[in-house]
Design brief:
By secondary structure, the protein is an alpha/beta fold. It is 25% helix and 31% strand. The longest helix has 24 residues.
Amino acid sequence: MKTKTILYALTIVATASLMSFAKTASAETLTATVTAFNTVAAQTDSNPCEAASGDNICGRRDVVACPRRVPLGTWVKIKGKRYECLDRTAKKHDGRFDISFDKDIQAAKKWGIPRVKVTILWDS
């Protein structure tokens, strides 16, 4: 019985280690240009609250438009904050990420156009 208990405990520890490794392996960090946009018709289209995913993003400050290689619904981390990829960048800016600042135009302008580290959380 003692041997079974030890073997069982080792299996749990080994499984937990593999899970931890898998989570680490499912993230990708890169340096990218990260811009800002507002959910207003002048910056998007006639329906600025509807993202490419179909979600209503008005009122949210945790949304980012992502390059096409990142599936909609994926979470990314930019400057320590998590954002959900619910929208797409314009084709001419396909390598960028574009954070929604909802209606706060001044905050979007203040953000600027920095190149920063972006971590894509593939299993989010």
